[in-house]
Amino acid sequence: MTTTTTTKQPPHVLVFPYPALGHTLPLLDLTHQLSLHNLTITILTTPKNLPTVSPLLSTHPQIHTLVLPFPSHPLIPAGVENVKELGNSGNLAIIAASTKLSEPITLWFKSHTNPPVAIISDFFLGWTQHLAQHLNIRGFAFYPSAAFFAGILNYCWGNLESVKVLDVVDFVDLPRSPSFKEEHLPSVFRKYRESDPDCQLVKDSLVANKLSYGFIFNSFESLEGEYLGFLKREFGHERVYAVGPINLLGPESTDRGNPVTDSSGNVFKWLDGCPDESVLYVCFGSQKLLNKKQMEALADGLEKSMVRFIWVVKTGTAQQVEDGYGVVPDGFDERLAGRGLVIRGWAPQVKILSHRAVGWFLSHCGWNSMLEGIVAGAMILAWPMEADQFIDARLLVEELGAGVGACEGTATVPDSEELAKVIGESMSEKGAGVKMKAKELRRKALEAVKEGGSSLNDLNGLIEELCKLKIQ
Ligand code: UDP
């Protein structure tokens, strides 16, 4: 087993991101930090995911890569290696397929002259905790999500039989004993079917995280200290590191490893011409495509709200476009020109949010988006849809009072009048109290990553822990 003797050589750590952008980007931000602290790092990726890693490799040419072929799976079309091409429902197959990487990783490890002493892997790849034990190295689970969410998910798996028959689940063990409707539980749990072998692999993988030696969260103490404390008690040790917002720990990383499109120049030119805090930014993450009716209702709501906005519309496949997914109603851009801007495809979200003209964010409450909104001091109008988003929205809107509800549900078509009203009120004097709390949260987030702040302390604690490890 690993020991705690200090070594002279910097420790070698294998980093294994999960192939979904919301998971990969924050783990790459953490890797950037580890690399700045002189650790030897290998990143495990697959050929089609390599471009996401490339910007980090350019910044840190000393980082090694382990590029393994993406394992085949009957439900994943050839050439697809990332959840962004499948949507949230693709997670089961991608997690199941990933488990086939155990053997090639073992072979690589055994043939390495300086094999890693630890593996830091995304919690969706919890099966790597078994691998870490097998290889006699330490496993660290990385959560690009909330500690609150981890507490809920652990409870769900730990009480599978009772939870799966309930319409409303009371999480009595958790701080504040929250209740969630079945449809608001984590998607990865809701999709579980006992008879499906993929689901078994996913369940085993997620449950195996409890074997981790340490847990790393892209979160911070003053955002959810109660839940971080709860997890420490649950795990029975203090190796729970809240190092978020991770992208703020280092030098500015606004594009988060993704190309800035040509149209971005126009976006910033347009924003420069807008008054301070006058623009609503609308984006639902890297995976979600709204259906035709949702697109129409949202377009209508934005038009009726009379506010300035930027709307990021993810583009779908030819078939999805034909079915109306992600299609902006005809004439919308032209009619709203000057007041609103539609970005099709990928937007430099962090950079847009940090522009002085942006003050509000209609978001699905993916954890990264939420953190990015918080950091920007934007007031979030929450439209949680799936995954961990209902839990994130609960934390923000109900517990912290720093956001408002706008809509909920993955297929819900909002009433455009109501949506326009929520937007209009949030951006008027009526929203001032919540907006103030959002700004207070921004202050706390910035504090956490400063010298002496909780996240920087936790990062240092993590690095110290890694530096103590040596291979046996
Ligand atoms: N993102 C971006 N541009 C886009 C869409 C998404 O930069 O056009 C980034 C966003 O800043 C965030 C991540 O992609 O860092 C999405 O992660 P999140 O957890 O918010 O949602 P998910 O995509 O996992 O649903």
TrEMBL record:
Keywords: Glycosyltransferase, Transferase
Keyword field contains Transferase: yes
Pfam family, one: UDPGT
GO molecular function, one term: UDP-glucosyltransferase activity
Organism domain of life: Eukaryota
Family: Belongs to the UDP-glycosyltransferase family.
Protein name (record): Glycosyltransferase
Protein species of origin: Populus trichocarpa (Western balsam poplar)
